[in-house]
Every structure is written in structure tokens, then in C-alpha cells.
Amino acid sequence: MKKSGIIAALALTTVMTMTVLPYQDVDAAADTASVKTPENIRSIRKSDTSIRLYWKPVENADGYIIYRYKKSSKKYVKIHTVSRPKSAVWLKWTDKNLKKKKIYKYKIASYQKKNGKKQVSPRSDWVSAKTYQRYDKKINARAPKLNKKKVKLGLCSTEKITSYVPAAKYGKNKKKKVFSTTVRWYSSDTSVATVNKKGVITAGKKAGSCSVYAKSHNGTRTKLDVTVKNYARTGSYAGTYMREDDIYALLTDYKAQAQNIAEYYSIHRIKKGNTITFDLDKEAKVVVTPENADIGGLQKDITALLTNFPYHISIKVLCDGVLFYIWKQDGKDERRGEVIFWFDNDCSSMWIRIASHWTACRSNYPARGGNTSIRY
Question: Residue 241 gets which letter from DSSP?
């Protein structure tokens, strides 16, 4: 073969290789794609010697592997395979010939068959159930009872939910108790809100909605709807004090600056007992106290508000809110009024509320730092 022919052949081989490899990689990736883990596993007492498991079917799963905890080895051991699941809202399987008055723990994995190989998903969260008789004292649980069904939170705000785990209905003993009152908590979207093992919900840095679940030992669960709102970004304000020129100007002409500051510190909270203040000195320069305070990217907003606002204004950041103090033009010995953004207080009990989490009031403070009294 001539040299030119060899070069052409090599070039063609290179092109073919570059063309084929991506498709081969895609196929390989598809073969190793993860299989979804079964969710919403539940376990109940079926009889004195049997426990029934329920779970939601996984799309495209060819079957399920059931594991039971073995105390001697401290591991979950495969005990059964459901190879042909029926098309149903819930799937079920019963573990029979068990010992009476004993607690059993389970996990389930799904699998798919591809190219003659079985791909198995990660195992589910555990569930447990006890085999007991009708008049036994310690029995299984029902879904937890919560003190709330819905929660609305501001950015990065928290709220603790209290729970109670009632005993299963199948139990005639008047002194019946749940053998395990442990509640496991989890969020459907941790970017919106998280929840810890004590039931404390913490909102994220962006508005959104999700569900928080409280789950008993046997997988029965209760849903709580969580809505996270950015209360700093209020669309409009209303109330008596909106007729005041200075307050009106702050919340209309300088709304963007005020809301940017309120939003930033609702996310970047400072510790209780600490303060950050923004004011102008005699030369009309912005003074930040303390000097090393976290101001993020707010320098332009703070400077614009303090230097351009038609009245003398200062800002104080606390652990629970941001205060915008408006002072009389003839000096800073007396305040005209103030606008406050509260991180966690919705102000529903305050008639000086101008929006959710926002209040405005006229003041008659005798001097800065002195005793205060608000004229309602």
C-alpha cells in the first residue's frame, strides 16, 4: 500500500473511532445507571407470628429483594425475592413463621435485569414491627401526631414541631404502649427546608415549598406542608403610617435598598446580643460599627440610602430584625419614626403592621439610647 493510502486509512480509522466511542460510552453509562430505591416502606403485625410489609412500586423495577436484620451478625440478610410484582398502588409481602412477641427490622431494595445481569438499588430506610397478641401491653405504633399541619417560615427561620406516637388500633390492653416512640424526620426537598432529629425545621435561603415527614418505627408517617417565603421582598405596604412623607419615601423610592438590607440579614443572622449599625459622620461618610462587620455586597445600597435619603436615617441590625431609624432634620436628638423588618415575627398582633413582618411607627424618643415610648 502506498504511503498516501496508509495515511488515508489511519485517518478513516481515527474518525470511526472518534465516532463510535461516544455511543459506546452512552451504552455503558445506561447499563450502569442506578436503580431507584423503594420508598414509603411500612410494616405491620399480620398475626401473632407474621409481619406484613408494604411498599410503593418502583418504575421499571423487575423485582425486589427483602432483607431482615440478623442480631447475631449485626447485618441485614437477604430472606426473600419478589420477582414478579403485580401492578398496584401498593406492593406487599408477608414474613411468616416468626417468633411471638419479638421485634423484626427490614430493608428493601429493587432491581432491574439488563444484559443478563441484575442491577440492585441501594437499600431502603429500615422499618420494624413486633409480633404481639391482642392484649399485650407493648405494641406497634401508628403514624405520629403533630401539633401543626402547615408551617410558613421566613428565609433561614426555624420552628420546632412537637410529636406524639400513638399505639396501634389492634390492641385491647387499656395500658397499651408503643414499644418505640422514636420519630424519624426527613424533608422532601432539603434545598427548601431541612429538619433535624428533634423536629426543628430550618428554612433555606430561597423561597419555595416542600413536605416534612415524621415517621414512626414501622414506617407509618405524617406529612407537614412547609412554605418558605422571602418576607423582605414585600410587594406593597399599607397602613396609617404610609401617609407619612418620610416613611412613605423609605418604602417606595428607597424600597430596593431597604429590602436588600432586610433580605441579606435575614439570611446572614448575627448572634444574640450583637449589633451592627450604619450611620453618617459629620463629614457625611458612612460609618460601620463594628468596623469588621459583615456587610456582604450591601455597600452601594447602604451608601445610597444613608447619603441620598431626604431625612437623616440610620440602620441597626439585631439578631431578630433590622431597624431603620428616621431622625429629625435638626439633629439626631429625636427620632421622627422607625420602620422595622422582623425576621420571625409576622406582626399579626401589632396594629402598627404595614406588611407581614414589617412595622412602622412614629416616635417621641427624648434622646438616642434613652428611654423610649412609642406614640400609637
Answer: G
